[in-house]
User: What shape does this take?
Amino acid sequence: MPRSVNSVASRARRKKVMKQAKGYFGRRKNVWTVAKNAVEKAMSYSYRDRRTKKRNFRSLWITRINAGARQHGMSYSQFMGKLKANDIELNRKVLADLAMNHPEAFKAIVDKVK
Assistant: This one.
């Protein structure tokens, strides 16, 4: 029996990877083996960095809340502790937005917990 090769599926698979490599520099965009490695690496980076992004944003929010709290004579940890004690359930994203864009609203929250 002759050897059967599913070239349709193989071509489709390669085409998919080459499409993902579009816009890469040099041989990464048009040479199959190089493009395949580049796309694999890019996929692993994107998977990893979707998680890293969440950490980075949380860190940014904490920095902004800390700066806002210190303007009113409190540290970040004191502020967050008093928020929990007073049962104010605002998340860090909202608090950071208030501290940055609505300082009077943030001041009202700080005054409430003091």
